[in-house]
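Entry for the shared binder. Reason: the reviewer on the internal report wants the predicted structure included alongside the sequence.
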Amino acid sequence: MAKYRRKIPLSMLRIFIRQKLSIVILKRECLWKNAPSDGLLDTSDFWYFKKTDNKILPVQIQPGRADIPQGSHLVLAGNTSSTADSAVIVSAPVACQRSPGNLTFHYWLYNQGKIEVIVMSCHTQEEGVYRTLFRPKISCHILRTRVMISVQYTFQLLRNRSD
């Protein structure tokens, strides 16, 4: 297990049903957020968009189809600089996951864009402190736009310790 720790804002709600992770059916505040700044990663909030008109997206940022329905939610990350940049987007804690599960998402990449999935656990002793458990191997590239990741990790409730 990695020793990486990061503070997550307490305003992020816990998730008890998997449908709350869906950005497509969202009619409330998004439960995916940029990770808090550690001074090293990009924490700008330019990644989350809601399509509010009937215009077709330009080819430069076309995620698959150009005619995305009004009301669709998009998660975009990218820049035009020549140096590499990164952003970390995290979901609210998934409190309902107690056994191996599947993560499915659609994506579209251009240039040298990369996607990485990180599974984290919550430390109940310190509210809002998370630890990286592992990084599943995924094959996200420009020719494969739908990914299903089987997370084969036994999730355990972390108990408060009195020692």
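Summary line for the report: The first strand starts at residue 5 and ends at 7.
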